[in-house]
Amino acid sequence: MALFAAEGAFDPPATRAALAACRAPALLLTGEFDLNSPPGATAEFAGLFPDGRLVVQPGAGHYPWLDDAGRFVVTVAAFLG
Questions:
Q1: What is the distance between the alpha carbons of residues 35 and 48, in angstroms, rounded to a whole number?
Q2: In this predicted structure, which of 17-21, 28-32, 54-58 has the lowest mean pLDDT?
């Protein structure tokens, strides 16, 4: 935990470059009412990946797997294919 906010831990240009180089599909799933990772911000993050896929789970908050486990599992299973 001490390293999370350590000097140099936040380097936005380096992070954007690393995400742009990621060749794997990335699923970013957020809840419709997520205040910690709101859909708009999560959409911006998804756009940083070459194959970023955004899913906004209706009616869910920050813990979509608790708010509607069935929908969450279907979404993640479909992504994993």
A1: 21
A2: 17-21
CA separation for the pair 50, 36 (Å, rounded): 24
Mean pLDDT over 53-58 rounds to 98
Residue 33 burial class via C-beta count within 10 angstroms: exposed 0-12, middle 13-18, buried 19 and up: middle
Please choose, from the candidates 31, 7, 24, 2, the residue with its C-alpha nearest in 3D space to the C-alpha of residue 81. 24
Dihedral angle, C-alpha 37, 49, 5, 57, nearest 10 °: 20
Tokens of 41: 């911000």
Whether the Cβ atoms of residue 55 and residue 80 lie closer than 8 Å to each other: no
